[in-house]
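Quick one, tokens below:
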């Protein structure tokens, strides 16, 4: 029988202010009482490598690398169930978005595809105010591996033939419908 791996907490680099920098209200994440409501509310929790409850505790402890290398934040569907049900009113969904931004800034290669998926999705939404699947898929595959798109060619043709996917011409004029909103949010978050 294998013995469980023991983690020596003194060997882990910590940043005590990590959680304070993530939540819009500063030290709000420190008020987490570890009740587990976020995990119980999360429809994706069973697929996550770290449950939301455990991840928030790791954030409180300043375990930056462990949190950013986790796939938990990339599996978040941004349904807001954890945030709505949190008894402390912690803005958990916004904090997940901040974690994604940090992982993108630090260029963590482990979740490269998830990062590019997230960025391609955001770019298309910013540009058009709605999802344009053809452009989204093109942006995603061009940023990761263009040849990977060939694996989806049969499915794409089937969707096209059934009318489920409609090729659209790119918009040639005007600013994207959500571009000003994205710019304002970036300005409020101090990214612009």
């Amino acid at each position: 029988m294998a013995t469980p791996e023991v983690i020596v907490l003194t060997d882990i680099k910590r940043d005590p202010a990590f959680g304070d920098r993530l939540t819009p209200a500063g030290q709000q994440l420190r008020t987490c009482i570890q009740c587990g409501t976020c995990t119980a509310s999360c429809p994706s929790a069973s697929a996550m490598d770290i449950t939301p409850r455990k991840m928030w505790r790791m954030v409180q402890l300043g375990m930056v690398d462990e949190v950013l290398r986790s796939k938990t934040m990339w599996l978040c569907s941004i349904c807001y169930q954890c945030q709505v049900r949190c008894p402390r009113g912690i803005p958990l969904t916004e904090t997940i978005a901040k974690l994604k931004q940090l992982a993108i800034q630090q260029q963590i290669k482990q979740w490269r595809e998830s990062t590019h998926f997230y960025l391609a999705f955001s770019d298309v939404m910013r540009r058009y105010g709605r999802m344009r699947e053809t452009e989204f898929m093109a942006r995603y595959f061009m940023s990761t591996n263009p040849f990977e798109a060939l694996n989806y060619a049969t499915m794409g043709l089937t969707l096209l033939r059934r009318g489920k996917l409609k090729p659209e011409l790119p918009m040639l004029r005007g600013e994207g419908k959500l571009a000003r909103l994205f710019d304002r949010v970036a300005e409020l978050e101090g990214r612009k």
